[in-house]
Amino acid sequence: MNMRWSTLLQKVLVLVLLQETLCSTEVLLSVQEEQPEDVEIGTISHHFTPPFWLLIPSELVRLDERTGELYTTAQPIDREALCPLPAAKEACLIHLLAMAGPDEEIVKVAVEIEDINDNAPTFPGEQIRLSVPEDVTVGTRFPLDDQAQDDDAGSNGELRYHLEGADGFFGTDDEGSSLVVIVRRPLDRETRDTYQLTVVASDRGIPSRSATVPLVVKVTDVNDNCPTFPTSSPKTAAVRADAPTGTMVASVKALDPDLGPNAAIKYSFSPRISDGAKALFTLDSYSGLISLHGSINRDGPTEHVLRVEASGPSCPPAVMEVTVSLLPATVWGPVMKIRYIADYRDGVMLIEENQPPTVLAIIELEEASPVKGAPSIAGGVPFSLRPQNGNYLLLTSEPLDYEREREYHVSVAVHDGRLPGGREEMVIRALVQDVNDNAPQFETPHYQLNVEENNEPGVTLVQVRATDLDSWQNGEVTYRLGADGAAMFSIDPATGHLSALVTLDREQQEFHNFTILATDNGRPFLESTTMISVCVLDQNDNEPVFTTADFIFFIPENFPRLGQVGMVGVRDADAGANGQVEVQVLNGSGPFVMDNARGTLRCVTEVDRETQDHYELWLLAHDGGRPPRSASVHVTIFVEDVNDNRPRVILPASNLSCLTVSPSTLAGATVAKIYAVDEDSGINSDISYRVAASEPRGPSPFLIDARSGNITLGQRLLLRDHGLHHLFIVVSDGGEPTPLQSTVWVNLLVNDTLEPCHLSAVPVPVLSPYTHLPPRKPVCEADQSDARYARTMLFISLGLMVFSASLFAGSLILFIKQMAIRRKNSQGKLASKGSEIPLKLRETYSAVDWTDMQ
């Protein structure tokens, strides 16, 4: 018997040690992304024994329960989807939780997803524009914001840039790791004002992947040129002495290849010309037209040298000399005269642009003139002469374009040796009138804006610009929102500054798309549109919100380890890391943890209602913002009762207990009391009592109340009832579907004697085949998954060992005492004949141990 208890104790101790040393080993494996199905990742069987299974199944990884090997599934593993930027630049892990072996050892598995070069770089826009002044120094660097993005990691996501089509004028860094345009050669806008390049972004993967985007470099003008007179400009002119005031004498025109204000030219006479020339001639400072200002003194000089200066901004003046000959009045009258058909005002002919070749004037040769030569037009102007009935028609040779040239000086000359100076020239000034033939043009057809939410109302988001090549009111541009423009946006009609009138909220609307119209003031007006796309960027302005103010869950006390207690609903209206919520248990001393992958609360150990019938804890949810925002919620978990405790009999304290009942006891009197308790609750603790067997067999004079456990005398005691009565009582609870039971012996001695009642052994019941008794339960019953229960069994086992030792010692003492009593009785038989007790009491009562019957 001692060996039996020693072996049992060893087993219980081993069980406790195993449960107390619960493993949480972590295994690190790796696999490349985008692998096909059934590719082996690795195994967790090196230090563990089967079977294996995943506590939380995964769509991406499959575990072989027999071998412990992990394989990929039909669901491809996309590293960039699992670990988006910026986390994609770090190690990307899949965390799994597995159990191994019959001891259900917990194994943490981390699968690192290795990157492959499966993503090409991408540029944020369809085109990159760069403006560079033409006087920029060689070597100047222009960093661009339009960096490409590659979702891969490591060298697969490291980018380098180079330019194509630069013709040596532009380049990038030697390393090329950042998008920086470097000027390699001097630029000249007058030679070339636009460069069409291609930016190529390549990653460092093998094989490398790349992307391209057009780069338009616009060379902007600086005032690096000064006015010059072309060699073809007229250097001589003639005017008749009797010519009226205002007669056009000559026209000079200087050239400046710069643009806009840098090309503005102002004409003036040099201070070095004579006072007579100053009094006789005038020079238009803007057109360079020289005309007769006063009357010609016939006694004065016959020739004047006019020094004309052309000045530009920050430039020394260019000088040209025009020699004007004065013809005698006695020579013939005018060789040519002109009759205008086109609109003629203040000595200027006005011509609308875009008109087809049109007759502007008729040039007639004087009949009295001996000159019979044909007139001609000098210079490469878009005008021509056509003979008609002895006269000549002046007409345009092609449609004029105001945006290309706004003013022409048409020189019509007749060449004849008989004329003074060999020719007579007539200069006609023609102004091109603008027509609203150009619609405003935006810098880009699509503006893409990134605006953080919670912006300050009224602050400018972007300035849109549209230019109109027309002049005056035809080129004046105003801006307005299209019909699809939201009322929350406003645009300044004059400047094009777009602003938001209210604070933007990404959670209400993340994208805003609308059009902006640019309209000129021409009649009829022309307009164009551009698209505005506003992406409202997220700020961490929302805290996590639980779906209910309090969570209440119910679990049975035999709840499995790592079982799902319930779903914890929480959401965050923000996006990205600001909206990624993690929940943790604040008072972590309880047996509950959060499974954030599934959003569930789990129980890590088994619970016992009899030890604690409910748990209260707080959950804290915090997002991934910087700084994070958080919220908490109260959770109550009630442990529902399971019928896992048998009734425990308090009275009688032992199956050897014995009570003496007087034969004179009246019927209906209570002679004994059974008191039992059940640690369960509800119907599981509803106790009832019944007599399963009695000794001696046959009708018993004793009855038991099924609810109270009171044992009463059912009838008056007779002489045949004298002696020991053994009642085998079954105590049952009300558990479903099968109640739990305990048994106890109630021993009653019917006798007038006042001597104590003693039993030498526990009686042996004779049961009917219909009597149901508690199932046999091994003394060393332990659940390997419950360390608490194993410890309880340890204490019970130690108690049983102490009890057994005590019982053995008590039995030995009782045996010795009984032998002494028998010897005493045998010696005093004759003396006690007169008071002889019933034969029933002289019988020896012995019983087999109840456990041996099982």
From TrEMBL:
Compartments, as annotated in UniProt: Cell membrane
Keyword annotations: Calcium, Cell adhesion, Cell membrane, Glycoprotein, Membrane, Repeat, Signal, Transmembrane, Transmembrane helix
Region forming the signal peptide: 1-23
Membrane spanning residue stretches: 793-816
One Pfam assignment: Cadherin
Main location: membrane
Cellular component GO terms held in the UniProt record: plasma membrane
Record-level GO BP terms: anatomical structure morphogenesis; homophilic cell adhesion via plasma membrane adhesion molecules
Membrane-topology annotation of the record: Single-pass type I membrane protein
All copies of domain Cadherin, residue ranges: 62-123, 124-229, 231-442, 443-546, 547-649, 660-767
The protein's name: Cadherin domain-containing protein
Species this chain originates from: Albula goreensis
